[in-house]
Amino acid sequence: MSTERRRSAGSRRRADGPADDARGNGGRRGRGGPAEDERASAGRRRPEGDGGFWDSERPQRSAAPADRGEAPRRARPRDDYGDQPRRSRAAQNGAERPRRPRPDDEDRPRRSRATASLALDSGADTGRRRARENGDDTEERPRRRRPPEDGRDGGRRRAAAGGARSESGPGRGTRGTGGRRRKGPADDDNDEFDDRGPVKRFFAKTWKPALITCGVLFVLGVAGVGIAYAMAPSPNDMDSQADVDLEATLVTFDGGGRATQFGESTRIPVARDQIPETVIDGVLAAEQRTFYDDGAINPTGILRGVVYGGSQGGGSTITQQMARNYYDRLTKDEPSRIESLIRKFNEIMISFKVEQQLSKDQIIEQYLNTIYFGRGLGVQAAAQGYFGKDVSELDAAEGAFIGTVIQQPGNWANPQPGSIHDDALRERWGYTVGGLVELNQDNPERGLSQAEADELEFPEPLSLADNDNYSGYRGYIQEAVKRELDSRYGFTQEQLVSGGYQVSTSLNEDWMKYAEEAVQEQKDRIQEQSGQEIPEETQFGITAVDPATGEIKAFYGGPNAATNADNSLVQRSQAGSAFKPYVLAAALSQDISLDSQFDGDGPLSIGGVTVNNDSNVNYGKVDLVQSTADSINTSYVQLADYVTPASVLDTARAAGIPQEQLDTAEAGPNIALGTVSVSALDQASGYATFANKGVQMPRHLITEVVGRDGETLEPNDADKLQSGTQAFSPEVAADATYAMQQVITSDHNARLDDGRPMAGKTGTSNDAVSAWFVGYVPQLTAAVGLHRSDNQPLVLPGEDSIYGGQMPSRIWKSFMTKALEGTEQMQFPSRAGVGQMIDLAPTPTPEPEPSPSETPEPEPEPSETPEPSQTPDPEPSDEGPDCDVEFWNPECQEESPGGPGGGGPSPPGNPGDEEDGRGGGIFGRLGSGDRNGDSPQ
């Protein structure tokens, strides 16, 4: 009820009757009215229009004699007016009825503006009295009008007619007329105005439905949980994984030969009394220190699992982990988010039942016998894999190690010393040891005291070098297959080691050996010539890709995965000039012809960067064919600036370079000099797009995965493997291939002896931090890269300079010669002649005849080099350079034994690509010259 209605409550209690006076008393009897016994039956008086209240025929009543006091009243005849209330006698005789005292203005209830406006708009109809309620056919009586000579104040209606605001009488609220509220025109739309705020009105209307809804949902939720708990399988009824024969996952080569294996065919369960307390305490300290006091679930961890879809670990209790790993029904592959939530719910229900039916010791026993530890499934296999001993023989430090690796078994199974995984493992082990101290503080029978914990030393696990499944290149295959099963098939570690899958790969077993032999041949050559071994920090990478399918056919990552986890599939270094083909493809895609002219002289300043060519050679006006063949830095930086660096990055991305690598590159014109870091796999996949007529095929290692039930699993990129993606047109690929064919001259170290068509590009980063050769024939692409694990300049004994055209080219040739032996010599498409010729070369201006010392030869022949390992330089001039000005000139630098980094100071600048192997900064030799380097050996 609104405030206005509440104020008018008093007036609704009055009877409906005519207004007797100026105040409108609504038919109430006056104070001087007749006595109770003389009243008629509360009937209404007749209207004035019918002859007044008492017409001329009414008998007159005489006054009582004065000497007798007041004569007794006698009943007088009255007309039958029904139930109408009668007027007071004083009013009948024309006397004015006493009025109630009027309240002060501040206390008098006022009628709202809306009500007053409604009364004015509704006209005479709103002022008429209601029809008699006791007769449906009774017409409404007209209002009694006051004669003009009446001097009394007008009522509410008269004041309203005069434009004044009516004053309500006492006890009548804001309406002032008494009786029920008359219906106005606005009442059809809104019977009652509610002056409460919107929030209160909203909750007044919704709290009941909301309460009912919450109650129904609560009842349904409780019923659902009860039904789910009742339907959840009992631990006693379910087939446990311990009763199922484990099957290791077998990985095969392309021809079907065994490559490696994940997991073991059998599990060795151990009883609770065979597991020492040192191992139990280590696991509890790492996973759940309050295991013996807690319940079956961790609500916080469950909520995190629901929000992140299980991607955020560390929230499950040991009971939940045991239920998930122990029962076969919970380890089925359920990749969707909905199925993951269902699995989590089932896990919770089973955990409750496990907690009720099994003791804490039984739960921890089953947990340790089923969990994956990185080097085996179960605690007994882990003890033998990491320390070569029975689980009962593990001490406190080793028990803490066993508990530590549970969190990241894949990363901590074989961490390399000094790697981030090794650092993380040692930090986690320290956390576990701290947990042992905390356990001891809560329960003196568990854990270690602070003094005992301080005496512990980190236990070094056994090397995997003697493991047949991990030694040599087989460990690299394991890591590569593991990553791809995770990214393309969504495999977990538990599925991998016990699922019994058959994984077929595209790797050619013979080609894997060829890659290893090619690297070893060059290592032996260096050692024979110099009598020194190549520094162990030097990393060699080879990857071969089938352009038509994107399949990885072979790779080399290192001598032994057990001792060196780095490999060519993941390790990256700056691309150098081997990135220039992507600049060329971007230009051809913008209709820039190979015949377009550019400035081949240096130094060239673009975008605040000054670029020189290798050995400060000036080539004059050059086209893109010569720019590619001689790897001219100035023309390619000018080209990258013209087509925009963003276009170059888009082309590289379309060709197959990962987006995350491009995001870290400098987006400037010097992108042409290879500031992007790439792996051998990245480059082999990118160049395969040129060999495949511009179609980029997703690179992949796994060709088929078959489950133990014989069902073939589909990868998440199956649709892309069918047709690939058109990165650029076949005509662009043909012209780019034509330009890269000119790189492989007759005396190039990568030239194949059988003379088959081939194309490729060399690359060396600034200060010779990395060296590349990437080449291809129509049916196979291979990339070879050298770099150091510490990102320092390459140092090869007996080599004064390091180019992509030297050792990387020799390794490429050795591998490709063996891999292509007996295969068909396929031809590249002819040059398509894409685009229009543009001329960005500067207009030559007349200059004085330069002296011989100022005119370097455009491209010195390698045969003029006195030593095969030396890179030829322009003929020296009679007059040496002015070293006070040209301090970056190589002739101004003193010899330094510091390797290819060079000896003298270099002005600071952005890193580029340098091919002369003499060091220097961006003002000296930013970028690469990429010449053949030395004569064929």
Features:
Penicillin binding protein transpeptidase fold, single chain, 8% strand, disordered C terminus, 33% helix, 937 residues, alpha+beta, five-stranded antiparallel β-sheet
TL;DR of this structure?
The chain has about 950 residues and is of the alpha+beta class. The strands form six sheets. The chain has a five-stranded mixed β-sheet. It has a five-stranded antiparallel β-sheet with strand order 5-4-18-17-16. A two-stranded antiparallel sheet has the order 6-11. It holds the Pfam family Transgly.
Topology:
Layout: H1 3-7, H2 89-92, H3 113-122, H4 156-161, H5 198-231, E1 249-252, E2 258-262, H6 277-287, H7 299-308, H8 318-326, H9 337-357, H10 360-370, H11 379-387, H12 396-404, H13 409-412, H14 420-442, H15 450-454, H16 474-489, H17 493-498, E3 502-505, H18 509-530, E4 538-545, E5 552-556, E6 573-574, H19 580-589, E7 598-599, E8 604-606, E9 609-611, E10 621-622, H20 624-629, H21 633-643, H22 645-655, H23 659-663, E11 677-678, H24 680-691, E12 695-696, E13 702-706, E14 712-713, H25 718-723, E15 725-726, H26 730-741, E16 759-764, E17 770-777, E18 780-788, H27 807-819, H28 922-925
Parallel strand pairs: 1-3
Antiparallel strand pairs: 1-2, 3-13, 4-5, 4-18, 6-11, 7-10, 8-9, 12-15, 13-14, 16-17, 17-18
Helix pairs in contact: 6-12, 6-14, 8-9, 8-10, 12-14, 18-27, 19-21, 19-22, 19-26, 21-22
